[in-house]
Amino acid sequence: MARILSKVAPWLASGTRAHRRDPALHRYKPAQGSVRVLDDSDTAELWALVNRNPVANIFVASHLENTKTAAPTPAGGQILGYDDGASLASACWAGANIVPVETSPVAAQEFGRYLVATGKSFSSIFGPSDAVMDLWSELQTNASSPFDVRPNQPLMELRTGPAIEPHPGLRFSTMEDFDALLPACVAMFEEEVGYSPLVGGDQFYKQRIASFINRRHSMVDFDGGGEVVFKAELGSVSSQVTQIQGVWMNPAYRGRGLSAAYLAAVVLLAREHAPVTSLYVNDYNAPAMASYRNVGFERVGTFATILL
Question: For the CA atoms of the chain, what is the radius of gyration?
Answer without folding.
Answer: 19
